Amino acid sequence: MNFWSSDVQKRLCSYLLNKTIGPFLKSNLDLMSVQLFNRNGKFYLPELQLNVEKINEILKDLPIYLIEANVGEINAEIPWWDLKNSNVSIQLKDIYLNLLIKEQQLGIILI
């Protein structure tokens, strides 16, 4: 039996996603962008633009520089009925990355 209402699931999804992947997104998720399916713990997020500044901070020691990044969609399944013992499944589709290669010796960025 599922004790989580659709509204509670949506709010919890939005909160957890903003806390976990929020720093890597260009803007925060809102409740309208989280689409739940049949109260079974599946949800869908379309067309996400990534925060390239935050990602570049993490990649600073690599010879690449991120110019633009998008994820076409995220599909996930959260087993609300057994959060302690079950796995969460997350699938990313249509990932777009526009990268530049850094030339370390010259201190310039090449295309």
From TrEMBL:
* Membrane protein topology class: Peripheral membrane protein
> Would the keyword Signal turn up in this protein's UniProt record?
no
Cellular compartment(s): Endoplasmic reticulum membrane; Preautophagosomal structure membrane
Q: Which UniProt keywords apply?
A: Autophagy, Endoplasmic reticulum, Lipid transport, Membrane, Transport
The entry lists its GO molecular-function terms as:
phosphatidylinositol-3-phosphate binding; protein-membrane adaptor activity
Its BP terms in the Gene Ontology are: autophagosome assembly; autophagy of mitochondrion; glycophagy; lipid transport; piecemeal microautophagy of the nucleus; reticulophagy
Record's keyword annotation contains Lyase:
no
In terms of InterPro entries, this protein maps to: ATG2 (IPR026849)
Sorted alphabetically, the Gene Ontology cellular component annotations on this record are: endoplasmic reticulum membrane; phagophore; phagophore assembly site membrane
Report the family membership.
Belongs to the ATG2 family.
- Name of the protein in its database record: Autophagy-related protein 2
Task: Supply the source organism for this entry.
Answer: Piromyces finnis
